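User: Run a structure prediction on this.
Assistant: Running it now.
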Amino acid sequence: MDNTNSTMEGRADVQAHYTNSAIQPIDVIRAVLTPEELRGFLKGNIIKYRLRAGKKGPALQDIGKAEQYEDWLKDMDKK
């Protein structure tokens, strides 16, 4: 899967309210944050989803979300 953009189709943990939008929230976030701020946002969400895994819903769902944020962070580090 190409994680350099907001494409989220095919992920088991994606909720319909994200895939039905004309613009994805991550695209807006990328547009308004500086690269440094975006890295902090991504890292914060990685921590959040890893720490709450299994406490709010299925652990694998939160782990999958954390992995998506990790992929986006890795993509930033490649540039």
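The first helix runs from residue 16 to 19.
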